[in-house]
Amino acid sequence: MEEKWKTTAMLVVDMQKDFLKPEKIMQVPGAQAVIPNVIKAVEVARQRGILVVWIVREHDSMGRDVEFHRSHMYGEDKEGPTIKDRVGAELADGLDIQNGDYKIVKTRYSGFYGTNLHSVLQRAGIDSLVVTGVQTPYCVRHTVFDALELDYSSISVITDATGAAPFSVEIHEANLLDMKNVGIATLTLKEWCA
């Protein structure tokens, strides 16, 4: 294993059924298309010995831990997205948590907010991050910008292994440009694998 991979982690953000299936209320348009690239990115990360961290949302069925602006989706007579232990909170088909991976449960956009992600990465000696998942203007962006604020020395986003934005490809690309403008590497899967 190359030395640089020992200090690198891949963050896989919100690749859960409720965000990926077209019939779901929180479905990210275009996200289905990135699933094969996320599968490939995780496979390559494992081959390189990179720590794979699964960042997922899991909420209480009553919505007591969800953002205020989404709380109306939860309750006794409602089936809100990514409820803990329900099918919608499961990873997309083809993705699975394996021995040696780590799982972080979040209830907000950023994988760092209110979680132990930063301390886990520090303890593992991680200073470089590679980010995949959904969705670019929300959970991916917030996680990346928090990593930037926490001084990770290298942060990359795999542009075709991150979910398309909710309304247009332009939003996806604009968010990637914002990230690039503050020093985040924006690479295609092919470029990252090379």
Can you walk through the features of this model?
With 194 residues, the chain is α/β, with parallel strands linked by helices. It has one domain (3-193): Isochorismatase-like (Rossmann fold). The protein is 34% helix and 19% strand. It contains seven helices and six strands, in the order αβααββαβαβαβα. It has helices at 3-6, 17-20, 31-48, 117-123, 136-149, 169-181, 189-193; strands spanning 8-13, 51-57, 102-106, 128-133, 154-162, 185-187. The protein has a six-stranded parallel beta sheet. Helix 5 links the parallel strand 4 (128-133) and strand 5 (154-162). Helix 5 (136-149) runs parallel beside helix 6. The two termini are 15 Å apart. The model has no long low-confidence stretch (mean pLDDT 92). Residues 8-189 form the Isochorismatase-like domain. Belongs to the isochorismatase family. It comes from Protea cynaroides. This is Isochorismatase-like domain-containing protein.
